[in-house]
Write a structure and sequence with these properties.
The complex is a heterodimer.
Chain A (H helix, E strand, L loop, with lengths): L1 E2 L2 H10 L5 H60 L4 H37 L1 H11 L6 E2 L2
Antiparallel strand pairs in A: 1-2
Chain B lengths: L2 H57 L4
The chains are: A mainly alpha, B mainly alpha.
Chain lengths: 143, 63
Protein backbone atom coordinates (compact mmCIF):
# COMPACT_ATOMS: atom_id res chain seq x y z
CA UNK A 1 0.00 0.00 0.00
CA UNK A 2 1.33 3.41 -0.96
CA UNK A 3 0.06 6.70 0.45
CA UNK A 4 -0.34 9.13 -2.45
CA UNK A 5 -2.20 12.18 -3.46
CA UNK A 6 -5.07 11.49 -5.80
CA UNK A 7 -3.26 13.35 -8.59
CA UNK A 8 -0.22 11.08 -8.10
CA UNK A 9 -2.39 7.99 -8.10
CA UNK A 10 -4.14 9.13 -11.28
CA UNK A 11 -0.80 9.79 -12.94
CA UNK A 12 0.54 6.39 -11.87
CA UNK A 13 -2.53 4.63 -13.22
CA UNK A 14 -2.34 6.54 -16.49
CA UNK A 15 1.29 5.49 -16.87
CA UNK A 16 0.67 1.84 -15.98
CA UNK A 17 0.91 -0.59 -18.86
CA UNK A 18 -0.22 -4.17 -19.12
CA UNK A 19 -2.97 -3.92 -16.52
CA UNK A 20 -5.91 -6.21 -16.96
CA UNK A 21 -9.32 -4.62 -17.24
CA UNK A 22 -10.19 -5.97 -13.82
CA UNK A 23 -7.06 -4.49 -12.24
CA UNK A 24 -7.66 -1.14 -13.93
CA UNK A 25 -11.24 -1.08 -12.67
CA UNK A 26 -10.02 -1.89 -9.15
CA UNK A 27 -7.51 0.97 -9.30
CA UNK A 28 -10.17 3.31 -10.66
CA UNK A 29 -12.42 2.31 -7.78
CA UNK A 30 -9.67 3.20 -5.31
CA UNK A 31 -9.28 6.60 -6.94
CA UNK A 32 -13.04 7.14 -6.86
CA UNK A 33 -13.14 6.25 -3.17
CA UNK A 34 -10.29 8.66 -2.50
CA UNK A 35 -12.12 11.39 -4.42
CA UNK A 36 -15.20 10.80 -2.29
CA UNK A 37 -13.14 11.03 0.87
CA UNK A 38 -11.43 14.24 -0.31
CA UNK A 39 -14.81 15.74 -1.17
CA UNK A 40 -16.16 14.74 2.23
CA UNK A 41 -13.23 16.43 3.97
CA UNK A 42 -13.74 19.62 1.96
CA UNK A 43 -17.47 19.52 2.67
CA UNK A 44 -16.90 19.28 6.42
CA UNK A 45 -14.55 22.28 6.32
CA UNK A 46 -16.95 24.33 4.19
CA UNK A 47 -19.87 23.47 6.46
CA UNK A 48 -17.88 24.62 9.48
CA UNK A 49 -17.50 28.06 7.89
CA UNK A 50 -21.14 28.24 6.86
CA UNK A 51 -22.26 27.12 10.33
CA UNK A 52 -20.09 29.80 11.92
CA UNK A 53 -21.62 32.53 9.73
CA UNK A 54 -25.13 31.20 10.28
CA UNK A 55 -24.50 31.42 14.01
CA UNK A 56 -23.53 35.07 13.93
CA UNK A 57 -25.89 36.23 11.15
CA UNK A 58 -29.02 36.95 13.19
CA UNK A 59 -27.31 38.69 16.08
CA UNK A 60 -25.08 40.71 13.72
CA UNK A 61 -28.07 41.80 11.68
CA UNK A 62 -29.99 42.76 14.82
CA UNK A 63 -26.96 44.66 16.17
CA UNK A 64 -26.44 46.56 12.92
CA UNK A 65 -30.13 47.49 12.72
CA UNK A 66 -30.08 48.66 16.35
CA UNK A 67 -26.96 50.74 15.81
CA UNK A 68 -28.39 52.26 12.63
CA UNK A 69 -31.60 53.22 14.45
CA UNK A 70 -29.78 54.43 17.56
CA UNK A 71 -27.58 56.78 15.52
CA UNK A 72 -30.69 58.32 13.99
CA UNK A 73 -32.43 58.51 17.37
CA UNK A 74 -29.41 60.17 18.99
CA UNK A 75 -29.22 62.86 16.32
CA UNK A 76 -32.95 63.50 16.60
CA UNK A 77 -32.76 63.69 20.40
CA UNK A 78 -29.96 66.22 20.20
CA UNK A 79 -32.07 68.44 17.97
CA UNK A 80 -35.06 68.19 20.27
CA UNK A 81 -33.34 68.63 23.62
CA UNK A 82 -30.60 70.68 25.23
CA UNK A 83 -28.03 67.91 25.25
CA UNK A 84 -24.44 68.94 25.83
CA UNK A 85 -21.76 68.11 23.30
CA UNK A 86 -19.95 66.09 25.97
CA UNK A 87 -22.98 63.92 26.71
CA UNK A 88 -23.71 63.57 23.03
CA UNK A 89 -20.08 62.73 22.25
CA UNK A 90 -19.99 60.00 24.89
CA UNK A 91 -23.12 58.38 23.52
CA UNK A 92 -21.88 58.78 19.96
CA UNK A 93 -18.58 57.09 20.82
CA UNK A 94 -20.41 54.24 22.50
CA UNK A 95 -22.52 53.75 19.40
CA UNK A 96 -19.46 53.93 17.15
CA UNK A 97 -17.81 51.16 19.19
CA UNK A 98 -20.95 49.02 18.92
CA UNK A 99 -20.99 49.72 15.19
CA UNK A 100 -17.38 48.62 14.72
CA UNK A 101 -18.04 45.43 16.68
CA UNK A 102 -21.18 44.59 14.72
CA UNK A 103 -19.51 45.29 11.39
CA UNK A 104 -16.87 42.63 12.11
CA UNK A 105 -19.49 40.08 11.11
CA UNK A 106 -19.22 41.35 7.54
CA UNK A 107 -15.47 40.71 7.53
CA UNK A 108 -15.99 37.23 8.94
CA UNK A 109 -18.61 36.49 6.31
CA UNK A 110 -16.32 37.71 3.53
CA UNK A 111 -13.51 35.54 4.87
CA UNK A 112 -15.79 32.51 4.92
CA UNK A 113 -16.95 33.25 1.39
CA UNK A 114 -13.37 33.64 0.18
CA UNK A 115 -12.64 30.17 1.55
CA UNK A 116 -15.82 28.42 0.49
CA UNK A 117 -16.23 29.77 -3.05
CA UNK A 118 -13.15 28.12 -4.63
CA UNK A 119 -13.53 24.97 -2.54
CA UNK A 120 -17.14 24.59 -3.61
CA UNK A 121 -15.96 24.83 -7.22
CA UNK A 122 -13.63 21.86 -6.75
CA UNK A 123 -14.03 20.13 -3.40
CA UNK A 124 -12.08 17.03 -4.40
CA UNK A 125 -9.25 19.21 -5.68
CA UNK A 126 -9.16 21.06 -2.38
CA UNK A 127 -9.15 17.79 -0.46
CA UNK A 128 -6.30 16.51 -2.60
CA UNK A 129 -4.39 19.75 -2.02
CA UNK A 130 -4.68 18.99 1.70
CA UNK A 131 -3.27 15.51 1.04
CA UNK A 132 -0.35 17.16 -0.76
CA UNK A 133 0.22 19.54 2.11
CA UNK A 134 -0.12 16.95 4.90
CA UNK A 135 1.51 13.67 3.77
CA UNK A 136 0.30 11.68 6.78
CA UNK A 137 -3.29 12.20 5.70
CA UNK A 138 -2.81 10.79 2.21
CA UNK A 139 -4.96 7.80 1.27
CA UNK A 140 -3.35 4.44 0.62
CA UNK A 141 -3.48 2.98 -2.84
CA UNK A 142 -2.59 -0.56 -3.82
CA UNK A 143 -0.57 0.69 -6.77
CA UNK B 1 -25.31 24.35 -7.35
CA UNK B 2 -23.08 26.47 -5.16
CA UNK B 3 -25.54 26.79 -2.32
CA UNK B 4 -22.99 27.57 0.38
CA UNK B 5 -21.40 30.39 -1.60
CA UNK B 6 -24.82 31.78 -2.46
CA UNK B 7 -25.86 31.74 1.19
CA UNK B 8 -22.66 33.44 2.31
CA UNK B 9 -22.82 36.06 -0.45
CA UNK B 10 -26.46 36.81 0.38
CA UNK B 11 -25.62 37.11 4.07
CA UNK B 12 -22.70 39.43 3.32
CA UNK B 13 -24.90 41.59 1.08
CA UNK B 14 -27.66 41.80 3.68
CA UNK B 15 -25.25 42.78 6.43
CA UNK B 16 -23.45 45.24 4.14
CA UNK B 17 -26.72 46.91 3.15
CA UNK B 18 -27.72 47.54 6.77
CA UNK B 19 -24.16 48.58 7.55
CA UNK B 20 -24.27 51.19 4.79
CA UNK B 21 -27.47 52.60 6.32
CA UNK B 22 -25.79 52.62 9.73
CA UNK B 23 -22.78 54.44 8.27
CA UNK B 24 -25.01 57.11 6.73
CA UNK B 25 -26.77 57.62 10.06
CA UNK B 26 -23.41 57.68 11.84
CA UNK B 27 -22.18 60.45 9.54
CA UNK B 28 -25.34 62.45 10.13
CA UNK B 29 -24.98 61.92 13.88
CA UNK B 30 -21.36 63.01 13.69
CA UNK B 31 -22.43 66.18 11.89
CA UNK B 32 -24.85 66.79 14.74
CA UNK B 33 -21.98 66.40 17.21
CA UNK B 34 -19.97 69.00 15.32
CA UNK B 35 -23.00 71.31 15.32
CA UNK B 36 -23.36 70.95 19.10
CA UNK B 37 -19.67 71.62 19.63
CA UNK B 38 -19.88 74.68 17.36
CA UNK B 39 -22.91 75.99 19.21
CA UNK B 40 -21.23 75.57 22.59
CA UNK B 41 -18.03 77.17 21.34
CA UNK B 42 -19.97 80.19 20.03
CA UNK B 43 -21.84 80.55 23.33
CA UNK B 44 -18.59 80.34 25.22
CA UNK B 45 -17.03 82.95 22.94
CA UNK B 46 -19.96 85.32 23.51
CA UNK B 47 -19.62 84.92 27.27
CA UNK B 48 -15.90 85.62 27.01
CA UNK B 49 -16.58 88.73 24.92
CA UNK B 50 -18.91 90.12 27.57
CA UNK B 51 -16.25 90.25 30.23
CA UNK B 52 -13.97 92.67 28.44
CA UNK B 53 -16.96 94.82 27.51
CA UNK B 54 -17.94 95.05 31.18
CA UNK B 55 -14.40 95.79 32.16
CA UNK B 56 -14.18 98.56 29.59
CA UNK B 57 -17.44 100.06 30.79
CA UNK B 58 -16.21 99.99 34.38
CA UNK B 59 -12.95 101.54 33.38
CA UNK B 60 -14.83 104.28 31.59
CA UNK B 61 -16.75 105.04 34.72
CA UNK B 62 -20.00 103.86 33.27
CA UNK B 63 -20.42 101.10 35.82
Amino acid sequence: MAPRTIADARFALDQAVGLSDADRRRCEAEITAALHQATETATVLMDERVHHVAGLRESALADLCAVRDDFAALAAEAKATAMTAADYGARFNDLAARHRHAAQAITRTEEALAFVEPVEDDPAGYGDALYAKFPLTRPDFSF
Amino acid sequence: MKSRSQYLAATRDTLARVNAQAQRNALAAEDQLFALEDREARRSARRTDRVPAAVVARDQGRL
